[in-house]
Amino acid sequence: MATKHEQILQHIISLEIGHKISVRQIAKTLNVSEGTAYRAIKDAENQGLVSTIERVGTIRIERKKKENFERLTYAEVINIVDGQVLGGREGLHKTLNKFVIGAMQLDAMMRYTEAASLLIVGNRVKAHELALNEGAAVLITGGFDTSEEIKQLADEKQLPIMSTSYDTFTVAAMINRAIYDQLIKKEIVSVGDIFTPYDKSFYLYAKDPLHRWYELSEQSSHTRYPVMDEKERVTGMITSKDVLGKDRDILVEKVMTRNPIVVQGRTSLAYVAHMMVWEGIEVVPVVDPSQQLLGVVSRQDVLKALQQIQRQPQIGETIDDIVSRNIQALEEDSTVFLAQVTPQMTNQLGTLSNGVFTALMTEASSRLLRHYKKGDLVVENLTVYFIKPVQIDSKLTIKPKVLESGRMYAKIDIEVYFDKKMVGKGLLMAQLIDR
Questions:
Q1: 178 and 78, same domain (yes or no)
Q2: According to the model, what pLDDT value does residue 187 have?
């Protein structure tokens, strides 16, 4: 018999697309508590069955497949920044590949402005004209207008020129968030993409005799198995440490570890990788919201997926992608790295942002460890001692140095130089994942 949680999910699935849902309504219709209804609705939202929209409520939506993807259009940008269209309305359906912040001289600005991009700039009419002629749309910040000639040019080119009352930095942050949502979220690998399903995994029942553990150990390469009750719910884990010196005829439930660490299908690959390193475990059960076993995910599954991700072409660019693309090892010394500061790596003041600075330090440290064949790192702590302002187009030299290293742990000192002067220094401590 289905649980109340499952009944609510089935009820939500049966509703028409666009149907409005509330906790109180679900609780009344299915005769459940409001707490149970709330948890089920949140689970439905995580599964992509419903969406909560500010000032509207929770709506039943069509579940989107991971591969179904639409790029950001100029019309969506208008909604994101609460803007208005000044000209080029017929081009609102077009998509943009990137956006450029116009916080620089015109000649430098135009080096980065290209067709199908969006220039975010203030009331600089000449910049508006140059961008439109390059095939880029324009978003004017600060609530400013533009000339009638520019509006006519936008109409001719069928490229939107838009205006918003927000400042440049806020607009960039808002659009970057939208690009993350649409370009990046689909690339995130979750446990549901890689786990070994229930019918192909190894497990025990609480009432099994202990000798079943030895049988499974001979069949598989693992020594850690989930333990289920009669309703297929995970109630424990059993490992080689639990069975050591125990009578083989006693029940599994007598020696298992109760309340084990479990994950759900929507748990991210990065979280599972970090947890496996941190807890020192090789297999984790994958369960549904009612704790029923769906399968298991192993350290080997995670490592294979991590290596596969590194070989995948990325459709959308995150800050990490930009950092990775702009950092290269010196030919004469592969433990020293060079990076050039691009406009996407800067803050509202036109200098290298603190977040990108730390990302550069982390990427250089990761590459250093791979050079020494130490494996991949999971950052535990990064302490930055000081950072000096670094301008656009600056070429940085990054020198990471391993201070301590073990099988599962590393401590790295990082120094960042510009023009032979130190502009940043940090200390990174990391857990290591063996390849």
A1: yes
A2: 55
Alpha-carbon torsion 152, 158, 161, 162, what sign?
positive
What pLDDT does residue 315 have? 46
Task: Give the burial class of 420: count Cβ atoms within 10 A of its Cβ; 0-12 exposed, 13-18 middle, 19 or more buried.
Answer: exposed
Given this model, what pLDDT does residue 1 score?
56
Question: 230 lies in a domain?
Answer: yes
- d(CA 332, CA 412) in angstroms, rounded, equals 21
Task: Catalogue the long-range contacts made by 165-169 (C-beta closer than 8 Å, 24 or more residues apart).
Answer: 165/82, 166/81, 166/82, 166/141, 167/141, 167/142, 167/348, 168/101, 168/102, 168/103, 168/120, 168/121, 168/122, 168/141, 168/142, 168/348, 169/347, 169/348
Domain range for 134: 74-186
Give ∠ CA 48-182-5 in degrees, rounded to 5: 10
| Structure token pair of residue 420 | 């032979």
Q: Which CATH number is 51's domain given?
A: 1.10.10.10
Number of domains forming the structure of the chain: 4
- The residue among 272, 307, 342 that closes a domain is 307
pLDDT beyond 50 at 425 = yes
Max Cα separation, the chain?
Answer: 89
CATH number of the domain encompassing residue 137? 3.40.1390.20
Report residue 84 as tokens.
């208005």
SS3 per-residue string spanning 63-99: CCCCCCCCCCEHHHHHHHCCCEEEECHHHCCCECCEE
User: Does residue 263 sit in helix, strand or coil?
Assistant: strand
Taking only the tens place, the pLDDT of each residue in 302-359 is: 877 776 665 544 445 566 777 888 899 998 888 999 999 888 788 777 788 888 898 8
Task: Answer with the one of 307, 333, 355 that is the final residue of a domain.
Answer: 307
Q: Is 318 exposed, middle or buried (0-12, 13-18, 19+ CB in 10 A)?
A: middle
Q: Tell me how far apart the alpha carbons of residues 407 and 70 are, in angstroms, rounded to a whole number.
A: 43
